[in-house]
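User: Design a sequence. Structure:
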């Protein structure tokens, strides 16, 4: 099931979008779409578990809180959902990248264009949910989804995984090189190797500074000076090529 949040302050726009979503669900019976409708960013943020939606359709220009501001607050709360912005103007397209937007659609929304974007977003959601790494700990073998990992590092001959919910998972002592141990992560374009014993999930990086990567939560992770240009380029390539 795909939990979708539709947020637009204009009633006629909400009604038109819901008609399109109903038509999409009819044309894609294999997709179980569960939409929730909100008339303002505040209403969405005050709802129960607002960061737990899989997909957000956010109007950009709304009173009090814009769609960009709503997206930023959702990311701060740990939302991993894909964001599609809807607006009559293209002037906010660059700002939308700060919230890791999946797409930016101009109104009036063309049905075929919307359906194509929804197809791509849902495929990405399903892929992210299925990608995982198995980690052997002292107590058990943990299955950790890629999209739950912020970064991982070598720590006293163990691999320490820092997760989105602030949990830390430590592997048993590793007896092979760090890069071999985390090979499933390195095979995914979401992860970038920083030095020889540190890997970061680009999905949660919202700025690549001179010697740091800044995460949505505000955490700044230092990167090797000699690798800074390469890492910044990989970050830009990841978001531009998505």
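Assistant: Done.
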């Amino acid at each position: 099931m795909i939990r979708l949040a539709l947020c637009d302050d204009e009633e006629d726009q909400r009604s038109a979008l819901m008609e399109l979503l109903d038509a999409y669900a009819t044309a894609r019976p294999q997709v179980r779409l569960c939409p929730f409708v909100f008339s303002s960013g505040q209403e969405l943020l005050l709802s129960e578990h607002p960061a737990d939606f899989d997909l957000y359709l956010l109007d950009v220009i709304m009173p009090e809180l814009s769609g960009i501001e709503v997206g930023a607050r959702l990311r701060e709360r740990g939302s991993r959902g894909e964001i599609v912005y809807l607006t009559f103007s293209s002037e906010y397209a660059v700002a939308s990248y700060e919230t890791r937007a999946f797409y930016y659609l101009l109104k009036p929304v063309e049905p075929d264009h919307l359906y194509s974007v929804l197809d791509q977003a849902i495929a990405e959601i399903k892929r992210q949910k299925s990608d995982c790494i198995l980690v052997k700990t002292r107590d058990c073998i943990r299955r950790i989804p890629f999209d739950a990992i912020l970064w991982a590092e070598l720590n006293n001959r163990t691999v320490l995984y820092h997760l989105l919910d602030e949990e830390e998972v430590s592997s048993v002592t590793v007896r092979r090189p760090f890069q071999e141990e985390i090979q499933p992560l390195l095979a995914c374009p979401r992860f970038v190797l920083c030095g020889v014993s540190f890997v970061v999930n680009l999905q949660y990086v919202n700025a690549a500074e001179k010697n740091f990567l800044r995460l949505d939560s505000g955490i700044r992770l230092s990167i090797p000076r000699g690798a800074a240009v390469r890492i910044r380029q990989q970050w830009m390539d990841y978001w531009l090529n998505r």
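The first strand starts at residue 2 and ends at 7. Residues 82 and 121 are 7 Å apart (CA to CA).
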